[in-house]
Amino acid sequence: MDRILVWFRRDLRDQDHAALAQALRRAREVYCVFLFDRAILDALPSRRDRRVVAIHQALCELDAALRRRGGALYVCHGMADEDIPRLAGALRVAAVFVNRDYEPAALARDGRVAIRLAAQGIAFEAFKDQVIFDGVEVLTQAGRPYTVFTPYRRAWLARLTEEDLAPHDTAGGRGRLCVVAENLSEPVTLGVPTLSALGFEAMPPSEVPEHGAGMSGAAVRRQHFLGRLTQYAVQRDFPAHAGTSRLSPHLRFGTISVRQLVADAVAAGALRARSTAETPSGAAAWLSELVWREFYFMIIAAFPHVATRAFKPEYDAITWADGEQADADFAAWCAGKTGYPLVDAGMRQLARTGELHNRLRMIVASFLCKDLGIDWRRGEAWFAAQLNDFDLAANNGGWQWSASTGCDAQPYFRIFNPVTQSERFDPEGTFIRRFIPELAEVPTRWIHAPWLASTPPTAYPAPRVNHASARAATLARYGLVKASTKPSGR
Which of 358, 417, 423, 438 is catalytic? Predict the structure, then answer.
């Protein structure tokens, strides 16, 4: 081919990039584009969005990297099925190359773009990049997608080879990165427009992710994490400690390659044989989390109904709490004012920083669904609006796991006790005090259940619900569904 256009999406790096490597190998001239998709941006509730700022930072760094190599980034601000074909035609390319996406809306978008390109005689090719294995590569012996994580992980690990982790070469090939300034029309620019030109506001440094959002920020976080990897299995559940990788936003926007991170885990001994009685090594636990990520990608691609409904259809019959009381409870949960300190600390962390520790994601999700009795989809939507690392597949999978409506074997009667979870994972109340200043002076003895103190703090709300009563109501709510779907035995 003479010319190929590489469309960057959630892969904002110029190294170990499948579509870019293929284009450089197969074409003489390679052009690069990113689209600020109005179908997504126009629906955002605020013009101050951390994720848009992070994407903008990553694009500026990507554009600079491409310019050092003789190219640059074309940036569109519009609709994918209009602007990508228009730019491809203006550049007279033979093909548009992308890295494959797996979400239902993204697949539908790509289908529309491919049809428009085909009408101009331009090919559309998608490559595997954001996962080690596509869903069709790890199947049961019957050739079906796995629906339980543990056997999926076992099959995933058995398939893994060194070749799967080999980086895609974006330095070699016969092609070269190019730019052509002619034939451009709005809404296409050469280089990254300002945030204000996109209709968004900049944010103060205190509200921007630490270490930056681009490839350089990813590299810094990776190095920090590798120094703590051996302790990951022990430290990852304690939100007051720096025990997690904090790399999820970089995986979400592709400023680091998943192959690099899996290779790091393998190099640290993640695949070494160990007794099942042993605590998993930090590397093994980290690799398992990366496999969870791919499991949820596979699930949403193979079972797209999970984007809006329960994986287990019978659980769509659950009668969730609604009305004024449920709305008030939901507002209190969002604001971190439920009266349960660790739940509230997590929700305030989310609102303030756009981050939420993984253990706390499970705790606050369980509380919403199984203490307040509120539909998991309301919580999923709130996370989608707040999380720096929002990813539909992982967010949906995590919420359905917590609500016991998902594909994995999570029994509905497993209900997190918010007080015992707090005592176990924030024993000194360090994290609680960090995000709930009105509890700063409460003795550790009462920090997990301040309403039990002889003089409860007046600035902090009383619990909105009694956990024991809520647990009984949840068992009844789910039990009715289970009873209605039980075989009659005739």
Answer: 358
Cβ 360 vs Cβ 349: under 8 Å: yes
Q: Which of 376, 382, 401, 446 is catalytic?
A: 376
Within 8 A by CB and 6+ apart from 65, the residues are: 14, 215
Secondary structure (3-state) at 98:
strand
Distance CA 439, CA 449 (A): 11
Q: How far apart are CA 402 and CA 372, in angstroms?
A: 13
Q: Find the helix or strand (DSSP H, E) in which 8 lies.
A: strand 3-8
Other CB atoms closer than 10 Å to residue 122's CB: what's the count?
22
Task: Give the pLDDT of residue 482.
Answer: 74
Question: Which residue type is seen at 284?
Answer: A
Q: What tens digit of pLDDT does each residue of 280-294 get?
A: 799 999 999 999 999
Per-residue pLDDT reduced to its tens digit, 344-385: 999 999 999 999 999 999 999 999 999 999 999 999 999 999
Which residue from 431, 420, 430, 457 is spatially nearest to 442, judged by alpha carbons?
457
Q: Is 446 among the residues known to form the active site? A: no
Q: How far apart are CA 365 and CA 378, in angstroms?
A: 10
Catalytic residue among 286, 399, 401, 446: 399
Instruction: Verify whether residue 333 is a known catalytic residue.
Output: no
Residues 6+ apart with CB under 8 A from 247: 218, 221, 222, 225, 256, 261
Residues 6+ apart with CB under 8 A from 469: none
- Rounded-to-integer distance, Cα 360 and Cα 366, Å: 10
Q: Is 286 a catalytic site residue?
A: no
Q: What is the pLDDT of residue 278?
A: 53
Count of CB atoms situated within 10 Å of the CB of 445: 10
358 a catalytic residue: yes
Residue 82 has a CB neighbour count (10 Å cut-off) of: 16
Residue 325 neighbours by CB distance under 10 Å: 12
E strands, 128-187, in order: 176-177
- CA 361, 363, 368, 369 torsion-angle sign: positive
**320 a catalytic residue:** yes
Element (H, E) at 31: strand 29-37
Can you list the alpha helix ranges (DSSP code H) found in 160-281? 215-226, 232-235, 248-253, 258-267
CB burial of 250-285 (b: ≥16 within 10 Å; e: otherwise) equals bbbbbbbbbbbbbbbbbebebeeeeeeeeebbbbbb
Catalytic residue among 137, 320, 423, 438: 320
Residues 120/32, Cβ–Cβ less than 8 Å:
no
Please tell me what DSSP assigns to residue 145.
B
From 258, 293, 260, 272, select the one nearest 230 (Cα to Cα): 272
Report the DSSP pairing between strands 73-78 and 188-190.
Answer: antiparallel
292 is catalytic: yes
